[in-house]
């Protein structure tokens, strides 16, 4: 890296000695292209070198997480004395990470060109903040029976190293077409219980203080990274956004999910469409009490993609109302099952009560077509989402909706899902995560018994 940087300096000197801005355009283009190639090579080497340090950093960040979870007290931090305590605890929890970084950076600062060191610091900053997010703030999904039921035996490693933005790809690549889904849990059952705990408000405050210490460390009295660069880096923005969501209530998170995830039922290709469902939705408001009611008529399903065997396919439709403040209300209805038909007719109507305090824009209908299985979990055929905001103006709709194999989520959706997955004592959160993480298992089609 130092050699490449020296080449860049010498090339710049050559450019100036040949006339600089007055150089012929063809010659200038050649030199500029060479400079760009050297610059790219230096970036690639910096990334490669920083990644070689990632395993050690991961170990130290996990120790940071362990120390953080050991901190007691769950109250908000208000008093000056409490803030001083938080600062001291932040120093303590960061000891494993700082020791690991000191071990290398002290040596690199003497042996690296200044420009090279800056590039290394940038890559290390990205790695440290990224690992903090995925290991401490958003550890792997905790409901193993739901989130990892068809991962292969290497699922623990996959989950522990998956970034939020990589989760949909992880699901697509590792949660479909795998044999023997009931035995696939063996690889994930030993994930430590510590990662299933929610961070308390105090622990979040300690982590916030720790982030400031890490920023100061990488700034290195103006000898390292600029504070503005770190503050605006996508990695820190993502971690802080996750922390801001972390302390919100389940109702608020679900509301944020509904309002932000507006393309959940978008299918990537025609192959992802596994049928169609015909639904009628009517919205009512009681003029006396302003209580809002949602009537859902499940008319039929058409052209379901499923392998039929005698007496083994019993499709039914499950309709779930999703939104805030539904803990004490009926949230799920299901039709009766039909026997061995790919285009079943139901004509069943269900009623959901929302109340009079919430906007209908905060709610959606999560519709699943499933294959009824006696004495074991029903199998997902396909699913669709209807957001009530799309029908508020007209008040009702009759629609034919394509069924997909799973829902689509962006980074915000995955962040919310992973936060809610850790709330093991919250039935609404557990139910929500199960619905949004469910995925059709293709391998079951070839062996429906």
UniProtKB/TrEMBL annotation:
<dbReference type="GO" id="GO:0061789">
    <property type="term" value="P:dense core granule priming"/>
</dbReference>
<dbReference type="Pfam" id="PF06292">
    <property type="entry name" value="MUN"/>
</dbReference>
<feature type="domain" description="C2">
    <location>
        <begin position="275"/>
        <end position="401"/>
    </location>
</feature>
<dbReference type="InterPro" id="IPR000008">
    <property type="entry name" value="C2_dom"/>
</dbReference>
<dbReference type="GO" id="GO:0019992">
    <property type="term" value="F:diacylglycerol binding"/>
</dbReference>
<dbReference type="GO" id="GO:0030672">
    <property type="term" value="C:synaptic vesicle membrane"/>
</dbReference>
<dbReference type="GO" id="GO:0016081">
    <property type="term" value="P:synaptic vesicle docking"/>
</dbReference>
<dbReference type="InterPro" id="IPR014772">
    <property type="entry name" value="Munc13_dom-2"/>
</dbReference>
<dbReference type="GO" id="GO:0042734">
    <property type="term" value="C:presynaptic membrane"/>
</dbReference>
<dbReference type="InterPro" id="IPR010439">
    <property type="entry name" value="MUN_dom"/>
</dbReference>
<dbReference type="GO" id="GO:0043195">
    <property type="term" value="C:terminal bouton"/>
</dbReference>
<dbReference type="GO" id="GO:0031594">
    <property type="term" value="C:neuromuscular junction"/>
</dbReference>
<dbReference type="GO" id="GO:0016082">
    <property type="term" value="P:synaptic vesicle priming"/>
</dbReference>
<dbReference type="GO" id="GO:0017075">
    <property type="term" value="F:syntaxin-1 binding"/>
</dbReference>
<dbReference type="GO" id="GO:0098831">
    <property type="term" value="C:presynaptic active zone cytoplasmic component"/>
</dbReference>
<protein>
    <submittedName>
        <fullName>Uncharacterized protein</fullName>
    </submittedName>
</protein>
<feature type="domain" description="MHD2">
    <location>
        <begin position="91"/>
        <end position="257"/>
    </location>
</feature>
<dbReference type="InterPro" id="IPR035892">
    <property type="entry name" value="C2_domain_sf"/>
</dbReference>
<dbReference type="GO" id="GO:0099525">
    <property type="term" value="P:presynaptic dense core vesicle exocytosis"/>
</dbReference>
<dbReference type="Pfam" id="PF00168">
    <property type="entry name" value="C2"/>
</dbReference>
<dbReference type="GO" id="GO:0035249">
    <property type="term" value="P:synaptic transmission, glutamatergic"/>
</dbReference>
<dbReference type="InterPro" id="IPR027080">
    <property type="entry name" value="Unc-13"/>
</dbReference>
<dbReference type="GO" id="GO:0005516">
    <property type="term" value="F:calmodulin binding"/>
</dbReference>
